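Hello Y.,

Per our agreement to keep a running log of every chain we model this quarter, I'm adding this entry. I've kept the format consistent with earlier entries: sequence first, then predicted structure.
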Amino acid sequence: MLRDNILAVIRAFAGQARILTIPVIFIEYTGSLDCALFLAQLLFHSDQAIAGGHSEKGWFPRGYKEWSVEIHLGEYEIRKAINQLKSMGILETRVKKHNGAPTVWFRLKEADFSESILEFLQNRNLRNHRMDSVETQDSFLVEENMREIVSKDNGAIPPVSEKSYSDFNDLARKAQEAFDYWRERLNHPDAKFTDDRRRKVVARLREGYTLEQIKRGIDGCAASSFHRGENDTHTLFDDLELICRSGSKLEGFIARANGNGGSKKHGSIQAPGREDRTKTPASSDNFAFNPKRVIGG
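Predicted structure for the entry above:
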């Protein structure tokens, strides 16, 4: 599969013993040089654990001092990188005895990582494709480079079809329209279409939700006084990333737009291929928060 070939190429240039190598894509993917370095070495050690056959499902032990000696980062930077990768859903840890002492064990969730980085590459290319003409095909520069590298090893990445260009272009257009609608509807004129917002919108579109449903969810957020800052901390919970965080979250906001808890109205929008789930109680949208402005735009 395409994602497996991409991961194989990245792995070939990732961390090696006594050599600290960071694929540039990791820096863009994590947004942090420290986190990218940690991810590269994490991938290296995961491969070693699996190849050695001495570790259960890719788990391997590593103390903070060992990490620090190996990648020359302090414990604070290491913990920060660990927390970021865990929040991205691609790393899990557990504490288990090793050589008689409690030790942190790590495992890179390769399937989730492959899916996540492929989605990142595709979204990255969507942005490039909007800026460049179809004739230059610059929006698929990453895949083309990967294809060139893999072809040297007789790999097999299928060519990008015209339909793929059309599909990506349509997703990009709809995602941008959803962002523009959110920015105007919720009055965030200075907000940027950041990667986290783009990923969530594109994910919902790929699941089958329509542009009109996403706009309806934005309307539902606009209709909620709590999400618009009328709460104990006077905090806004109206970010586009929140509205599109998951299918159930989007449906909850659509329910608000349709009238408090999902009472059906003429022209209400149903989730794709699902039973009517708009009757979810309003409390289902509650989540832990910090007393600060979420939008950050």
